[in-house]
Structure formats: C-alpha cells, structure tokens
Specification:
This protein has a single domain, classed as Rossmann fold (3-Layer(aba) Sandwich), CATH 3.40.50. The C terminus is likely disordered. It has six helices and seven strands; from the N terminus they run βαβββαββαβααα. With 211 residues, it is of the alpha/beta class. It has a seven-stranded mixed sheet with strand order 2-3-4-1-5-7-6, sandwiched between helices.
Length: 211
C-alpha cells in the first residue's frame, strides 16, 4: 500500500450545484468514500475536499476540487505534486454529454473532449496520459444550450438511471485499483442502460466535443 492513488471526481462546490448534471463526478466519489468508510476533510492548500484511506488494498486519496469546474486542474496538480502521485495513478471521473444517459466509458488517456474541467487538468498536469471514467448524461433536448443543460438537475426518470450509473462507476474504480486500466476497460466499456457488457464504439472527434 506504499504507492498512493488519486481518484478525482469533478463538479462545482456548493449546495446550489449539488444535484446538477455537471456534478456526476462528485456523486461517484461521494459514493466511493461512503462504501469504504472514508470521510472528506478540507485540504486548504489544494482547494479541495479529500478523503484518504485504503480501498481494495491500495492507499487512495479521493478528491473533490473546490475551485469550480473550469479550474479543477489547480487542485489536481497540487495534490499530485504534494503526494508525489504520477499521472498513471490518477483517475478522473466526470460527466459526458456525448454518451447516452448512464453509459460509462473508461479510457487510459485522451484529450478533454471540450470538457473544461478536463482541459484544466490536462493543462496543469502537462499530460493527457491519465485514466478517466466518463459518465454519460446525454445531449440536451432540442436547441437547448449545453452550458445551461449541464447546470440543471436530472429529472425523476433520469435520476434512477444515474444512481445506477454511479454505482457502476464505483465498481469500475474498484476494478481499476485491482486489475488496472485494461481490465477495467474490458469489463465496463459498453455498460449502460441494460447493463450489457458489449463494448460500445468509440466516439468520433466530433462526437467527443462537449461544452
């Protein structure tokens, strides 16, 4: 357990944002911490709330940046530096407009896909070579602005599906800690509304774009 892992959920701090679609990353790491009896405390220097302890035999730091989404990299880079955690042991969980509601996509690396929180992390870590779990929140209806859509709560039917997706994401994180990124991709990519295991095709660069 000497090598610490960093698991980051992205979201916006404050009760007024708590139920928003953009805060799915926070929901996942909250559920992960609860499942393993970990409690969040303030990390003032990193502008984050962190929970530190063992998960699946690994020493893990679970973090929720408190910088607001667009500046998430400030927290992640500071924690990575202070705890000497290399990028391959940093996993980020966040929402994705271009995945169907509740679908998970696990990747070993990649660009931001237009997600501003991920863009900040990539910029300040100086690399895009770190694992991530994207949780699908679907596209906004009609001509609704995606920037407005992500800052609204899920409706009642969506909430049930997202709660199921959050639990699958927790399981995927636990799998990553034990089996690594390839084993996690093999097991969880493609899981979605029906819980099927068949991998879904990768999105094209155009489909990857997100506000």
């Amino acid at each position: 357990m000497r090598d610490r892992f960093l698991i980051v959920g992205l979201g916006n701090p404050g009760s007024e944002y708590a139920a928003h679609r953009h805060n799915v990353g926070f929901h996942v790491v909250d559920a992960l911490a609860r499942a393993h009896g970990l409690s969040f405390v303030r990390h003032k220097a990193a502008q984050a709330r962190v929970a530190d302890g063992p998960i699946e035999g690994r020493l893990v730091l679970v973090a929720k940046p408190q910088t607001f989404m667009n500046l998430s990299g400030k927290s992640v880079a500071r924690l990575a530096r202070d705890y000497q955690i290399p990028s391959e042991r940093i996993l980020v969980v966040y929402d994705d407009l271009d995945l169907p509601l509740g679908r998970l996509r696990v990747r070993a690396n990649g660009g931001s896909g237009g997600h501003k929180g991920m863009r900040s992390i990539i910029d300040l870590l100086g690399t895009q070579d770190f694992p991530r779990i994207r949780v699908g929140i679907d596209r906004p209806p009609g001509s609704m602005d995606p920037a407005d859509y992500v800052l609204e709560p899920f409706d009642r039917d969506q909430t049930v599906l997202i709660q199921e997706a959050v639990q699958r994401a927790v399981s995927a994180i636990e799998c990553w800690l034990v089996d690594g990124i390839q084993g996690t991709m093999d097991r969880y990519n493609g899981q979605g509304l029906t819980g099927g295991d068949a991998p879904a095709p990768e999105a094209s660069p155009a489909q990857e774009r997100q506000e």
